[in-house]
């Protein structure tokens, strides 16, 4: 984390030897963004029905699961549960990768 993003309160806690994760970050959640084109815009190559299903169900599942994993991570960090933090890494990578890298990039660059 860049030093400029740390608050004075965080720095004061760090100087006193008590840097805790809950002082460093706030929970950020993600939402399913609307496509910049209609579901039928790619027809006849991809049907509007398939695009709607893919966006509303499949892509939304990544968003929901990523947010759930982020909330669990936030709770684990607040309680200092390092084993839970480690266990959440695969869910964060899978859903974050599916959401941010694959689907969002592909959906918004077509």
Automatic annotation (TrEMBL):
Domain of life of the organism encoding this protein: Eukaryota
Annotated Pfam families: Sod_Fe_N (PF00081)
One annotated Gene Ontology cellular component of this protein: mitochondrion
SUPFAM superfamilies noted in UniProt: Fe,Mn superoxide dismutase (SOD), N-terminal domain
GO molecular function: manganese ion binding; superoxide dismutase activity
Manganese/iron superoxide dismutase N-terminal domain segment(s): 29-105
Keywords: Metal-binding, Mitochondrion, Oxidoreductase
Enzyme class at the top of the EC tree: oxidoreductase
Intracellular or extracellular location(s): Mitochondrion
Coiled coil: none
EC numbers, comma separated: 1.15.1.1
Reactions catalysed according to its record: 2 superoxide + 2 H(+) = H2O2 + O2
Protein name: superoxide dismutase
Organism per entry: Quillaja saponaria
């Amino acid at each position: 984390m860049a030093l400029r993003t740390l608050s004075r309160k965080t720095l004061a806690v760090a100087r006193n030897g008590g840097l805790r994760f809950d002082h460093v970050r706030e929970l950020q959640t993600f939402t399913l963004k609307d496509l910049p084109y209609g579901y039928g815009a790619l027809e006849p190559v991809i049907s509007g029905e398939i695009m709607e299903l893919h966006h509303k169900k499949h892509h939304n599942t990544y968003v929901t699961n990523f947010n759930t994993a982020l909330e669990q991570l936030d709770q684990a960090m607040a309680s200092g549960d390092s084993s839970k933090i480690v266990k959440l890494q695969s869910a964060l990578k899978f859903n974050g990768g599916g959401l941010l890298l694959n689907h969002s990039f592909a959906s918004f660059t077509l």
